[in-house]
Specification:
Distance between the termini: 43 Å
Shape: globular
Largest sheet: 3 strands, antiparallel
Strand order of the largest sheet: 1-5-4
Strand content: 25-35%
Number of domains: 2
Oligomer: single chain
Structural class: alpha+beta
Number of strands: 9
Number of helices: 4
């Protein structure tokens, strides 16, 4: 069952999917409709999940589940991945490749393969202070505190 994101507790589990390209406003509107429809029927072992989403920077899809009400199970997680795969196919984007880095270059959001990001570090095109998106955060509290952080404060720090 869909609930507004701000109504979920900070301990709610999240999954972050980053696109290899920016979605158009029209695409993001269509995705929003599809997400609400999916979340309204998303369940684990026949019990509705209290879930929500955020769409950020025309590039990120964040799913969240209040695990205090009902924990997401393997089957329900699989169904969410199938939903994301359907979006990938429909919009010809990559949302599941974890070997990419998304970061800010001024006001621009850049998306690079990890190997290219490492080269940019070596060439000093990005620094320890470059804001990166740490998609390894696990819950809303971590998302709020540690999603957009200087590279030195995330798992990206190993490249400096």
């Amino acid at each position: 069952m869909y609930v507004p994101f701000e109504n979920l507790p900070e301990e709610s589990k999240i999954w972050i999917y980053q696109s290899n390209r920016k979605f158009s406003d029209t695409e993001f509107s269509e995705i929003e409709i599809a997400l609400k429809s999916f979340l309204d029927q998303w369940a684990a072992h026949g019990t509705s999940l209290e879930a929500s989403y955020l769409l950020k920077y025309n590039r990120f899809i964040i799913l969240a589940v209040n695990q205090d009400v009902q924990a997401a199970s393997g089957c329900s997680i699989d169904s969410s991945v199938e939903f994301i795969q359907a979006l990938e196919k429909k919009y010809s984007v990559d949302l599941l490749d974890k070997m990419n880095v998304t970061f800010k270059l001024g006001e621009h959001i850049a998306h690079k393969p990890l190997i290219d990001f490492k080269k940019m570090v070596k060439d000093k095109a990005v620094t320890e202070n470059t804001v990166v998106f740490n998609n390894l955060v696990n819950n809303i509290e971590e998302f709020n505190e540690s999603w957009e952080v200087p590279a030195i404060d995330s798992w990206h720090s190993r490249f400096f």
